[in-house]
Write a structure and sequence with these properties.
alpha/beta, 10 helices, Putative short-subunit dehydrogenase-like oxidoreductase (DUF2520 family), P5C_Rdtase_cat_N, Rossmann fold, single chain, N-(1-d-carboxylethyl)-l-norvaline Dehydrogenase, domain 2, about 260 residues, 8 strands
Length: about 260
């Protein structure tokens, strides 16, 4: 049973995951970050010790969780003696196999959500995707995940990578479109708040019906009159015009057989 954790990382995910683990009664033995300020800030939140020195990372916890950027993770792993230690990474895009040469006891603990230090989240509603080097490790990680969330899924590295890619589309790209929409209306002195009920309804629909069925707008029906008006409106913003044209064509191609 996992009762203690060393948290390697102090970013958005580590901050929210560390808080959730503490609330679930898991002891956080230490926080590591490359910058002392980040490590200290999170350690104060979690009421634990911290270090910014790789050589001082505490490896006596039941589980060491690596919540780091992909390129930083692989470099850091090579600097630690992890043999015999239970370790897990939280990355959506890295296979579990990146840990295999560092400890035979390894797995993945991947919360599927967007995290910000400034915004609290309810971990009970967050899917946590688990993968383990063997059934015993998978059971241990799943048991820990179940203390945080009611949505624990055991999935493979390929399945997790597909989820991570899909998450980029439905979260990161969509948020960028919010930003672009904000820029369009701001230019004409229109309050972005007017679009928020539309944003809420669009997100709400996909909770109830298939995204394909939820699609509306001029691109779906290829209303050239409206599309051309929009493109003309964007004539002084060639990059935005290109995005509009590409996405409109993608929507039309998906629905043209209807």
């Amino acid at each position: 049973m996992i009762q203690s954790v060393t948290l390697v990382g102090a970013g958005n995910l580590a901050t929210r995951l560390g808080s959730a683990l503490k609330q679930a009664g898991i002891e956080i033995l230490q926080v590591y970050s490359r910058t002392e300020e980040s490590a200290k800030t999170l350690a104060q939140i979690l009421g634990t010790g911290y270090t910014a020195n790789v050589d001082d990372i505490t490896l006596s916890a039941d589980l060491t969780i690596f919540a780091l950027k992909d390129d930083i993770l692989e470099n850091l792993l090579s600097r630690l003696d992890l043999q015999g230690k239970l370790i897990a990474h939280t990355a959506g895009s890295l296979p579990m196999s990146v840990l295999a040469g560092h400890s035979e006891k390894h797995g993945v603990f991947y919360p599927l959500q967007t995290f910000s230090k400034q915004r609290e989240v309810d971990f009970k509603e967050i899917p946590i995707c688990i993968e383990g080097a063997n059934a015993e490790i998978e059971d241990e990680l799943s048991e820990l995940a179940a203390k945080l969330s009611g949505k624990v899924e055991r999935i493979t590295s390929d399945q997790r990578q597909s989820l991570h890619l899909a998450a980029v589309f439905v979260c990161n790209f969509v948020n960028h479109f919010y930003y672009l929409g904000h820029e369009v209306v701001q230019k004409y002195g229109v309050d972005f708040e007017l679009l928020k009920p539309l944003i809420q309804e669009t997100a709400g629909k996909v909770m109830e019906i298939d995204p394909f069925e939820a699609q509306t707008g001029p691109a779906k029906r290829f209303d050239e009159t409206i599309i051309n008006k929009h493109l003309k409106f964007l004539s002084d913003q060639p990059e935005l015009k290109e995005i509009y044209s590409f996405v409109s064509r993608s929507i039309f191609d998906a629905h043209k057989s209807e």
